Amino acid sequence: MKTLFIPMSALVALFLSGASLGYSQSLAVKKQLVDKFVSEGPLTQANVKKCGGVNKVLAIENIDLNKDRSPEFLVNIACPIRFSEATYVMWKAPNGISIIYVGGAREFLTPLKTYTKGWRNLRSLSYSAGSGESGSVTLRWNGIEYK
Length: 147
What we know:
Elements: H1 8-40, H2 45-50, H3 54-57, E1 58-63, E2 72-77, E3 85-93, E4 96-104, E5 107-116, E6 119-127, E7 134-139
């Protein structure tokens, strides 16, 4: 039996190249999403610049919501600018990126283990900064979007 020897420097290089590939892919996705938000609102190029650039304006969680082995995106605009809608669920449709849920600025989404019509249900937790009240609902896929 032959033993395969891989130098530690090669393993480190392999690890770092994979890490940088993941970073560049996530940065490319962020650029694509920011471009969509700039072209369709609510962001402007001035907002993106004020918030520190493409890499800092969005918080994105990639997750496969519909078992197609392709990630959908839970997106929060992580920059305090003046508009009320700051939580989104998006997916890569054949003709570009589609928004399939629009939520509020103080809303947090958590994927659940249950499914509706082949898509994972999402727990929406939101709170009011003014009153301090909070609430939670389950979002379900209706065939077109989350409701």
